[in-house]
Specification:
The structure is a homodimer.
Chain A lengths: L7 E16 L1 H4 L9 E2 L10 H19 L9 E6 L5 H10 L3 E3 L6 H14 L5 E8 L1 H8 L15 E2 L2 E8 L5 E7 L14 H20 L8 E4 L3 H14 L8 E3 H4 L11 E2 L1 H17 L5 E9 L3 H5 L6 E10 L3
Parallel strand pairs in A: 1-2, 3-4, 3-5, 6-11, 9-10, 9-12
Antiparallel strand pairs in A: 1-7, 1-8, 5-7, 8-13, 12-13
């Protein structure tokens, strides 16, 4: 019997060559607002529909990514992207303008990190030197598609989350930089029977716990080996369940644990349990967290991106919600 | 300036360890029907809704894949899957029962081949030894979601295609077998301005031509170097446009060219221009084509899977349809 390890150690070093973020007005006025590259003053971003607004936002994030390093898209070997719109059309429409070989991905709100892991493996396998990844979400598009149009002003329970309007782009590659992606772990799909789309934190927490426990066990590390362990979008209620599940396995995470969906908004912002969406983890990590790493306030960070793999259709069919959590480790190089 | 080659040569050999296919009644009674592992006698596959029927069909294909080799799912290192349902929920619900690390993919009808290329890179990069890939489509689910429920009996033009009800699964890995995946080429997204979802063959043909021309140019090969060049689902109208586009570049494909969407159905079956859908290329290649290769009637086959990256929403917005085509080469080993 072969001892199968799930943690991937990137043998060819994979660096964060560049990153770009663009968000909506609510995210821009939150506590992390100053850390994003661009804040759109309106949800429509000057467009006529939510999907085109989301596309514009992602293109803005990609433009920052490319222009900071004066790169052109012919520098890139591969584009990996996914989003929450049906058939991931925002990403496909962006790919149309990039003229770069394209992999479409879907891992719900964990898409940003699925993309990073696939990019890392591509770089390791010799198939690419520079890979652009993008993911996004938009509250207008998501509410309309998964629930009701926002104009309907639907009332929701406290455990419901607010979709982050934001897009994150990253270029991973072989050019040395200050931040390195050293390890990755693809999650298994876990479904403990929750079928309420207003309880996504509770639905996703077991997947996040499974991924963290697998990671710690395989690498023989403890939570204190990281400056920060960060879940993607469990929000307040889901984070508590995540910590409780870990305690049941004798693992305590507290001071060095946070959640992107909790960090994104201030306590004065009406966001129910906190943020969610494929843009949540992407903007918080590629924006705020990388800023903190560059400023040497964080050196080693474990990201556990969480995704709920449901649709409006499966909710109407009362199907339970399969969830996933993918993990990567980012490390600051040097002092 | 570095000469960037897009064709990926898999340095670590990647073999087709096993494959499984399951289709609906119309596909089963077509000219390739005898080559599929399982034919469901009804479109609902004994279930109550189209999505659950599609899930059952894909699980059947996976079961054949695993049982032919007496494999268990703990043999697998990775599961890669995608389908046409919103948020790819059929694939996610299957992943829930597999307990294998999961990558969600989306490349519309080209998903089967996107999966193969990602799996190949994963095996090359040392991240996995055995990768299960699956993709599927179902006419009931697709018509309801992209157009109108089939009960509505919508009239369509001759260029419209019939969604294949079928699922294909494949295990790619390091165990030597008769069929090897030797090369891959990820497509760029191309959109020449067609916004009519009943003209998908015409929309996708330029992407297929771009991928084939890039492949031939980079590898300095000619169409006659293959026993068969096979597009995924251009169907009759799209195939003619594909051949015309190639002729404009001085490339002639004729005797050794075919299209999965054309091959799937007999001329007596009412399917308009032919088959389409993520299950089309997957079942024809993993079923019929691999059978022909094992029987030594085909030795070297170039598959160009085609995908139209639109949604019901983008169609209603009159947006043009971005299209993609991914290519792989399968070769029979030995005599």
């Amino acid at each position: 019997m072969v001892n199968k390890k799930r943690v991937i150690q990137f043998k060819t070093p994979v660096y964060v060559e560049e990153r770009g973020t663009a968000v909506g007005p609510k995210e821009g006025s939150g506590p992390l607002g100053h850390g994003f590259d661009y804040v759109f003053p309106s949800l429509l971003c000057g467009e006529k529909d939510w999907q085109t607004a989301e596309k514009k936002m992602t293109e803005k994030a990609i433009t920052y990514c490319l222009h900071k390093q004066r790169l052109k898209d012919n520098h890139l070997d591969l584009f990996i992207a996914g989003d929450l719109t049906n058939q991931s059309t925002v990403s496909s429409q962006i790919a149309r303008n990039l003229h770069v070989p394209f992999i479409g991905s879907y891992s719900a709100c964990a898409t940003a990190i699925e993309n990073c892991i696939v990019a890392g493996m591509w770089i390791n396998g010799g198939g690419a030197r520079h890979v652009l990844c993008a993911s996004s979400s938009h509250i207008g598009g998501c509410e309309k598609q998964f629930r009701f149009p926002i104009e309907f002003a639907q009332q929701k329970p406290d455990t419901a989350q607010t979709t982050v309007t934001g897009a994150g782009a990253i270029i991973l590659g072989r050019h040395q930089s200050m931040i390195q992606m050293t390890e990755g772990l693809l999650g298994k799909v876990i479904d403990l029977g929750i079928n309420n789309p207003y309880e996504l934190g509770a639905a996703m927490a077991p997947a996040a716990a499974d991924t963290l426990l697998t990671y710690l066990q395989e690498t023989e590390q403890k939570p204190s080996d990281f400056d920060l362990i960060l879940t993607g979008d469990l929000a307040r209620s889901g984070s508590e369940i995540f910590k409780k599940l870990l305690r049941e396995h004798g693992v305590i995470v507290s001071e060095n644990y946070d959640d992107c969906g909790v960090m994104m908004y201030g306590t004065n912002q009406q966001v129910l349990a906190g943020g969610s969406g494929a843009g949540c983890c992407a903007t918080v990590v590629f924006g705020h967290i990388f800023n903190e790493m560059l400023a040497n306030r964080l050196k080693r960070v474990l990201i556990i991106a969480t995704g709920a793999l449901h649709s409006a259709n499966t909710v109407q069919q009362h199907k339970t919600i399969p969830c996933i959590a993918h993990a990567v480790v980012f490390e600051r190089r040097g002092n």
